[in-house]
Structures are given as structure tokens and as C-alpha cells.
Amino acid sequence: MAQLRTRGIADRRRAAGIVLLVGTLGLAACSTSETHKTTTTGGDTKVPAAKVTITPVQGTEKARPDRGVVVKASGGTLQTVSVTANGTQVEGVFNAQRTEWRSKWTLRPGTKFTVTSTAKNSIGTVSQASSTFRTLKPSAAQTATASLDWILEGNRGKTYGVGMPIIIDFSRPVANKAAVERALEVTAEKPVEGAWRWMGDQKVVYRTRTYWPAHQTVQLKAHLAGVRVAKGVYATRDLNRTFKIGAARITKINMKKHRMTVRVDGKKVRSVPVSGGNGQTMEYTTTSGTHLTMEKGNPVRMTAPGRKKGDPGYYDLLVNWAVRISNSGEYLHQSMGEEYCLGRANCSHGCVRQPAKDAIWFYRTVQPGDVVDITGTKRKLQWDNGWSFWQLPYETWKKGSALT
């Protein structure tokens, strides 16, 4: 089993920074910002103008970002609502009766907002109301990171495999997981059901029920600005990423038959003799299960896990054309002088060895998130070993959501 001397993938991330602000909350009581009048029609019948209320009210200086904007009309219906900040329109939705409008997402902290609205009563009289306010700007600031996994960050604009997860990391614990999760929006040209699962307090992962349909664009919109992550802590930046799902590359490896088959969009494109872990110890046994390709290097330095120089079984090698498939040191790579094992026996320390020409081809054509399905060994891949999230049944996966 190969072991890197580096700390692993997380140290090579290019994270997109999100600033979380910490401070004392300033709250303002709700009141009305309105302009209305009474209209007379049909003799002495009087129809009051619609009354419009806006929260936060005019002049509020420390509005809570997570409470958003609410506009209500009584005695009529809302016609228009506009909320802007720095020239950008804030998204919002009306209720079915058009008597209420709410901002769709949280508000950016430390920002000035302007609200204008109109409403009509039953005879068409127009009422207008407006409010200008500022959201909370605490005096203390805390830096955090929230990003897709490093390989997506480092390869923005390229294509990814049909098994690709979306991973968001935070540099400090998230207490209000449900609030954060409600701010996460994933859309795709070819939609498929998916769900988020929390892995501790600082990582959340999105996985689809089935593999992504191939050849499409996927977008993540993390509307995090203004989300109350923990008591007195707010995110101040959104996180938006667009990426492409490429060809459906499915690799199946049978360790009993010592054979690897690669299919691209359902068509068989490669059949390769391979050699896996020798099975002398558990760590030298290749794991069976659904792996994803995670990173690659040429060469990659590999050392014997748990052994130091002079110990039996110690090795320290530079391995060519290596593609990582787990966090426990498993790679697909070029054979290291034991070609006689290829297609006949399992002779490695846990990695899958290939002939040089096939290892080079695999290395040069692989996409992050390609599926590598291995069978025929007694060691089962754990669902949290790298990107092995497909090891969990989807119904079990969903239970890790804060919204279930």
C-alpha cells in the first residue's frame, strides 16, 4: 500500500475565502415605513389606500442579515417591490395573494440597502413605501474558507467525471448547519436528484442519487453572504462555481481475474492486464468498492506505511503515471519491474499496476471524479476513505443532511 509523505489532498487546495464576522448583534424593533391616503368614490363610500409596511424600517443601522427583507400590504395587494444594494437587485418572492414579499436569501452584512414598493387597493389607488437601512457590521472579523474540493478549484473550467462530488469546507465549526444548507443551490442542464451530507462540523458534501448524466454543465450557487453560521458569526461572501461533466468513464477492475476494463460513454475502449495488492496484510490488500479518481502525479513518491528505513518490507520509491483513488494510498500506476505479475497474480503493496503504455494512456485521459469499481478482494472500501461516497446507499446518505 502506497503512502505519501505529504499530508494529503487537503494541503493542496486552492480554497475560495469566505469571511465570517463575529460581533455584538444590534437589533431594531419592527415598525412601519409607509405612504397611504384615503380615496372617496361613489358618493360617501370611502376606500382606504392599501397600507404597506417594510422590515427593516427606515434608518435601521444594524439589521440582522439572516432575517432578510419583508414587505407586507394590508387592504390591497403589492404591485412592485425592489430591493437593491450597490446597484445589485436582491432576489425575492411574493406569496400567492401578493400581500407579502420576502427576500429569497440572506443579506450581505455591513451593506446599505434601499427598498421601494407599490400597492393598490380595491379601486386602484396606488400606495408607495420605501426604506433605506444598513445590515450589521460587527467590529471583529474572523477569516474562514469555504470551497469546492481543491481539484475543482485548481481545474476550474475543465471537465469532471460522472461520479464527481461537490465538497465545501469551512475553516471553523458550523453550528447552524440547516441555515447553511438552505443557502446551497445546485442546478444542472440534465437534472438528477442529489443531497448534501455533513461530515463533521466543517465539511459538507453533495452527491447525486445516481451518477451525473454525461456531457453537461453544473452550477453551484452558495448564497452564503449573511448566513448566521454560529452565534454572532456571519458569512460575508457568496460562492459560485460552474463546472462541466465530461464523458462517462467507468473503469471496472476484477482482482481475481487481474483484468481492468475501461468504458467511455458505454463503449469499451481498453482491456488491460493488472496486478493488485498481494494481500499479505490488510494494508497490502486493494480495497473493493466504488472509488473515484482524485488526483494524479508523475512521479509520486511512495513509502511503506508504518515502517521506517531498515524495517522488513520498507520501501521508498518514485512511481510514474500515478492516479490516486483513495486516501489510504491506493493508486493506479505503471508497473515497477514486475511485469510477470500483470494479468496473472497480485504482487503490489495495494496499488493497481498496469503496463507502461496503458498507465500512460489512463493518466493522460482521466478526469477527476471518474469511477473506478474494484471487485474480488476481502477488504471493503470505507465510504469516507477519500471520495468513496458512493459506498453509502443513497437513502443512508440523505440522512446526513441537516434538513431531514
UniProtKB/TrEMBL annotation:
Q: Looking at the keywords, is Secreted present?
A: no
Matching CDD domains: LDT_IgD_like_2 (cd13432), YkuD_like (cd16913)
Domain called L,D-TPase catalytic: residue spans = 249-375
Q: In which pathway does it act?
A: Cell wall biogenesis; peptidoglycan biosynthesis
Name the Gene3D superfamilies for this protein.
2.60.40.3710, 2.60.40.3780, L,D-transpeptidase catalytic domain-like
| Coiled-coil positions | none
**Pfam short name (any one):** YkuD
Q: Which residues form the active site?
A: H333, C351
Keywords carried by this UniProt record: Acyltransferase, Cell shape, Cell wall biogenesis/degradation, Peptidoglycan synthesis, Transferase
Protein name according to UniProt: Ig-like domain-containing protein
- Record the organism: Actinomadura keratinilytica
